[in-house]
Write a structure and sequence with these properties.
Blueprint lengths: L17 H10 L1 H9 L3 H5 L13 E10 L2 E11 L4 E5 L6 H8 L7 E6 L2 E2 L5 H11 E4 L11 H11 L4 H14 L15 H13 L5 E5 L7 H17 L3 E5 L3 H4 L4 E6 L2 E4 L2
Parallel strand pairs: 3-8, 3-9, 6-7, 7-8
Antiparallel strand pairs: 1-2, 1-4, 4-5, 9-10
Length: about 280
């Protein structure tokens, strides 16, 4: 498995419309590729072509509502995420951001509405089907890492690949590739207690993305990191999501972290609002 793709599989240069190819020719393919790597792609093709945009959503939420007792956390939430898109979920503490994230990934139930992940409607799945969906199609990144303490860094990344039945040779190649890609191959045999916060979050990112999920849910992924480690983690996460065309929904309090995302939403007063 390689992680060096510049464009999504659905979006090769030969597939672009004539107008966009003309624009790329006019600025040069080198500049275009550099724009891709720096997440300036939208500036290159803005208003020109929709060919590079996926024609389906990896996540769709429709009229989602959730209450605890007589307290309504959110109501009539609508959200769409395409492959390769990154969205940030902002809002005050205690407003229900993490609960919304849990509902979207099938960890918590919701009172009404619908959630669809990669064409599978969550409320129609039984327990085993939901577990399979989470195992194969979803990646999760936590604020406090949640690495298994008795497994090495290598083994923590390898575990989800074992769960989906990936053959050993392919599995080892994937883990080694990610460790090298994240510049932590020298820490492959270290246990979580022997790792720094930044190293643990890199391992957590690798674990979440190793099985090439359709979407990643990240709950305050930089909340327990220093500023430098947080920036590095976000940059790596951004690059990896783009390289394998994975959608991302990230809960954060940080406007700096949200700036890495294509779209920003705020949950407040029971409503989800897209920021300008």
């Amino acid at each position: 498995m390689t992680y060096d793709a510049i464009l999504p599989r659905e979006a090769r240069i030969s597939d672009l419309d004539e107008r966009t190819r003309f624009r790329i020719d006019s600025i040069g393919i080198g500049t275009f590729t550099n724009c891709i790597s720096k997440r300036l792609f939208s500036q290159v093709t803005k208003g020109l072509s929709t060919e590079l945009k996926a024609d389906k959503f990896v996540l769709e939420a429709r009229s989602l509502s959730k209450s605890f007792g007589d307290r309504t956390l959110f109501t009539e939430v609508n959200l769409e995420i395409r492959p390769g898109e990154m969205s940030a979920l902002l809002g005050p503490s205690g407003v229900g951001k993490s609960t919304l994230l849990n509902c979207l990934e099938g960890v918590e139930t919701y009172d009404s509405g619908s959630v669809v992940i990669d064409n599978q409607t969550l409320e129609s799945l039984d327990e085993d089907q939901m577990a399979l969906l989470r195992r194969e199609k979803i990646g999760t990144i936590f604020q406090f890492f949640h690495l298994l303490p008795t497994l090495t860094a290598f083994e923590n990344i390898e575990l989800p690949l074992q769960l989906i039945g990936m053959p050993e040779e392919e599995r080892l190649q994937c883990v080694f590739s990610l460790l090298k890609r994240l510049n932590i191959d020298h820490r492959a045999d270290a246990f979580p207690a022997q790792l720094s916060g930044g190293e643990m979050q890199r391992i957590a990112i690798a674990r979440a993305i190793a099985h090439r999920p359709k979407i990643i849910f990240a709950d305050e992924p930089t909340g327990n990191l220093d500023e430098k480690s947080g920036r590095e983690a976000l940059q790596l996460l951004t690059e990896l999501c783009q390289e394998i065309n994975t959608g991302l929904l990230m809960v954060t309090h940080s406007q700096d972290a949200a700036a890495y995302c294509d779209f920003r939403y705020t949950l407040a007063d029971e409503r989800l609002i897209q920021n300008a």
